[in-house]
Amino acid sequence: MITNLAAVTGTTSTGEAVQFWVLAVVAVGGALGMLLMRKAVHSALCLAATMLALAVCYMAQGAVFLGVVQIVVYTGAIMMLFLFVVMLVGVTSEDSLKEQLKGQRFAAVLCGLGFGVLLIAGIANAKLDHFTGLHEANAEGNVPGLARLIFTRYVWAFEVTGALLITAAIGAMVLTHREHVKAPKTQRELAAQRVKDNLQLPPLPAPGVYARHNAVDIPALLPDGTIAEDSVMETLRQRGQIRDVSQAMLQRMAELENTTADWLGRPSSERPPVAGPRKSLEPVPANNVNNVNNANNAGVPKADEEGAE
Amino acid sequence: MNPVNYLYLSALLFTIGASGVLIRRNAIVLFMCVELMLNASNLALVTFSRLHGTLDGQIIAFFTMVVAAAEVVVGLAIIVSIFRTRHSASVDDSNLMKL
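Output (structure tokens, whole complex):
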């Protein structure tokens, strides 16, 4: 196995070298992608790729347990949390390119480059030619070795970690908890509000024309044959997915009439006209309404005057 | 290949993460950059563990992961509560400590 071989010897095998160069490209590419993508979702996905590459790097270096924990905790839990919050906060939210401080971005890139050069120069100057390898430490397996250390030398840190995790969980709950500023409205108050606003008081009409269809996208018909838009749910209405069947019966009748006429051999002039689309109800012209109002208004003072007399 | 290359990779990733913290303005992406820096340091710790032939570096990396998980939980909760009151996840818009 490559991982064992790599962990045993101080220098790496060819297999590990190939794997390293492939994964390094993936990791750095993912990190750069995270830095440069404008949308937070894309950044999160790039970071997940980087973390997966790093997990394989851990495993290749003999840290099998850490590699698995990296996949489970980081790419599993933490990135899931990130994606959850990104979806909550708004997938479409993009970084604004406006700089609050003039030249801050340029200075930041410069600082980053300088920092990277310093860091890499420091590593290059360090004397790191002898790698002991983990073959002794991992002799009884990686997990037992880690467990031995965690539960003996680092047991205090381990216990404190438990306290930290509980504190973090409680902190998250406290931070995202929302107090009700005022009591939510009861059903009675909501009903009273509806009467006060004089909106639709009775229940909305049910969809469907029961003689032929009762699907939810088919509006009920009003007594004059037009459709009752209220009977179809808001979502379908907004999508324009209303199936109007108010004309279906008339068309069927017209077809029957035609068939009958064909059977009887009537000439086309004697046939009844095929029913076209029904005219929608004409609204009362605005002028008439005004006239009526004016008439009323004119009438009322007159009555008052009469009363006064 | 010399295993020191892992340290170079780690330094590179850390630098990218640090630059990201300075460059980006979205609070969530800032957090991702911090996570990347933690990951890079973890890689360095694992490599040092291999260098010294002891497992202590891996233990510290393990504790780093636990602390990172706790930190992300609290940090994202803060981001969500700030977003609720200010309707923005940009760090430029949050100029007051109070909500």
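Residues 217 and 242 of chain A are 5 Å apart (CA to CA).
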